[in-house]
Amino acid sequence: MFALLRRTRVVLLVVFFVAGSTLYMLMDQSREPSLNMVFPPSGIQLDSETLKFRADAIKEAYQHSWDGYMKYAYPQDELLPMSKKGGNSMSGWGASVIDGIGTAVLMELDDVVQKQLEFIATIDYTKCEHVISMFETTIRYLGGMLSAYDLLAGPYSKTFHAGKGEKNYDLVNKLVYQSVKLADALKFAFDTTTGIPSGYFRLGDGAVKSNDINIIAGIGTLVLEWTRLSDLTGDPQYTRLAQKAQEYLLVVENPEVGEPFPGLLGTHVRLNDGNFQDSFGGWGALGDSYYEYLIKMWVYDQKRFKRYRNRWVEAADSTIKYLASSPPTRTDLVFVAEYSNKDSIAFRGSHLACFIGGNFLLGGQSLQSNKYNVFGLQLVNGCHETYAGTPSHIGPEEFGWDATLVPGGHKEFFEKNGWYYRGESDYRLRPEVIESYYHAYVVTKDNKYREWAWDAFLAINRTCRTENGFTSIHDVTREDGGRKDDKQESFWFAEVLKYLFLIFNEEGIQAKQKIGFVKGHKQRWVFNTEAHPMKVMV
Ligand SMILES: *[C@@H]1O[C@H](CO)[C@@H](O)[C@H](O)[C@H]1NC(C)=O
After folding, report:
1. Domain of 523?
2. Where are the catalytic residues (predicted)?
C-alpha cells in the first residue's frame, strides 16, 4: 500500500513536471517574436499561369545549357561557351552529366535523363589523369549519383521506367554500383595517421602524404554522401571513414587554437595529429559546408546524429553572439562577419557565404526555433541587398561593410547600400543567394522571395546567356555584366537551375507533389551542398 502510494506520487510528480515544462516551452515560444511580426507578409499574389511560365523558362534555360554542353563539351566536365569547347576542372569524368541529372529528373526532361543514365553507366572511376579533389568529387559525383538513385528508384520510377522489370531498371541500379566503384577508388585517401583524408591526390598515388593539411570544409562535407552510400548498400565502411575524420571537428584537439568561439573553428587541420594550425574562419570559403552539414546530418537521421545537431546549435549561437553585424550606414541590414582569431573580427562577406540564411532557416524549421528563422530571414534580406544594389542586379563575389575600409569613391554607394565592392566583382553562376530565397519561401510562403528569385533569373538570363549555354561574367558592377568569362560550371545545372525550378514549382506541377520536400516541420529530403536531394531516414 505504501509502495503503491509512493509510486503514484512519483507518477503524479512526473506528470506535473512534464506538464509544467511543456507549459514553460509554450510560454517560452510565445515570448519569441512571430515571423509575421518581424517580417510582415508582402501580400504579393502570383497566379498559376505566371508560375508555370516561370518554371518553363527555367526548364528552357536548362535545355539551352545542356544543348551547348552536348554540342561542344560532352563528355568532358564542363562547357567553355565562349571558346566553344570542353574543360576538365573536375577530374574529367563528365561532371556536368552527373551534376545535372537530378535537376533533369525533377524537370522530367526524359530524353536528357536517358542520355545521362546511359553515360553514367559507362564511366570508369578506377582511371583518372587529373588531380582529384576529395571534396568536389564527393559532393558532385557521389552526391549526384546517389541523389539520382533516390529520385529514380523512388518518386520518379514510373516517369522514367525505372521500376523492377522496366527498361531503365539496370541503369538506375548502376548508379549505386558506380557510387561504390567511385568510393572504393577514393577511400585510400583516408589512410592517414588520424583518418583525416587528404584533400587532393591522384588515383595512381597509392598512398597519401600524412604531413599534409586539409580544411574543415574538406573534412566535414563528406559525411552525408558517404553515409548515404553505406545506408543504401548496407556496407558500413563508408560512413565509418567519414565519421572518424569528422570526429576531429566535433571535438577539437587544441581548442585554444582551433576553436576561437564555441563551435566556430579555425580552418586548417593537420593530417598527422588532427591539430588545428590556425584560428581564422567563418561561414565563407574553406569553412562553409562543414557548418551546413552539421544540421543536415541531423535532418538526415535524428537517431544517429544528435551530436552533430548540438554542434550546429553551438556554432549558430556563437554566430549570432559574436559575428552578427550591421553596417553603420544601414542599421536595418544584418551580415555575418569573419574572424582572424577570437580578438579580431573582419566585416566582410561573400556570395558563397550567402547560403547561411538558408541554412539557418533549415535549422529553424527542423529545430522549430523562431530565433534561427528570424536570423535566417535577416541574412537572406542582407544578401538580397547585394543583388538589388548593383546595376546588373547580380551580387558580387565579395563585399564588405567596414566603415574604416571603404574604398575611395565608394562612400556614397556605402551610405546608400550598406556595403561596398571588395576584391572580386564577378559572378560565377553561383547558387547561394537563390538557394537562400528557396528556403525563405519554403518557411514563409511569401511570394516576395519568388519575385527576388525571378529578378535574379532575369538578370542572369540577360547577362550570362550565350548562344550556346550560360557563362560566368566578369563585372556585376556594370549593367551588362562586363566581359563574358568562359565557364559554364556544373553547379549551374545542379544548384542554380534546381532551386529556381523548385521555387516556381509548387502547386499543380509534378516535382513538389512527388518529392514533398517538407511535411509540417519534418523534412523528407535533404539537399547536399551541391543541391542534390537525398531521401532522409525515417
Ligand atoms: C532569356 O533570354 C532569351 C535570349 O535572349 C530570351 O529569348 C528569353 O525570352 C529570355 N527569358 C526570359 C524569361 O526573359
Report:
1. 5-535
2. 136, 288, 397, 432
Q: Which of 77, 231, 292, 432 is catalytic?
A: 432
Range 100-130 burial, b when 16+ CB lie within 10 A, else e: bbbbbbbbbbeebbbbbbebbeebebeebee
Distance CA 456, CA 436 (A): 12
| Catalytic status, residue 278 | no
Among residues 397, 435, 446, 506, which one is catalytic?
A: 397
Q: What is the pLDDT of residues 359-405, one digit of tens each?
A: 999 999 999 999 999 999 999 999 999 999 999 999 999 999 999 99
Give residue 113's Cα distance to chain centre: 23
CA of 512 to the centre of ligand 1 (A): 25
Asked if 419 and 386 touch (Cβ cutoff 8 Å), the reply is yes
pLDDT, residue 37, reads: 85
Domain count, the chain: 1
> Does 529 show up as a binding residue in the annotation?
yes
Q: How far is 45 from 48, CA to CA, in rounded Å?
A: 10
Q: List the CATH number of the domain containing 34.
A: 1.50.10.10
pTM of the model: 0.93
**Distance (Å) from CA 349 to ligand 1 centroid:** 31
Farthest CA pair distance, the chain: 90
**Closest residue to atom 1 of ligand 1, CA basis:** 461
Residues with CB under 6 A from ligand 1: 57, 458, 461, 465
**Distances, alpha carbon 294 to alpha carbons 231, 308, 414, in Å:** 18, 5, 35
**Whether the bond into 391 is cis, omega within 30 of 0:** no
Q: Residues 77, 231, 288, 435: which is the catalytic one? A: 288
Rounded distance from Cα 97 to ligand 1 centre (Å):
24
The mean pLDDT value for 147-161 works out to: 94
The amino acid present at 537, given as its one-letter code, is M
Q: What are phi and psi of 424, to 5 degrees?
A: -75, 140
> Is 432 marked active-site?
yes
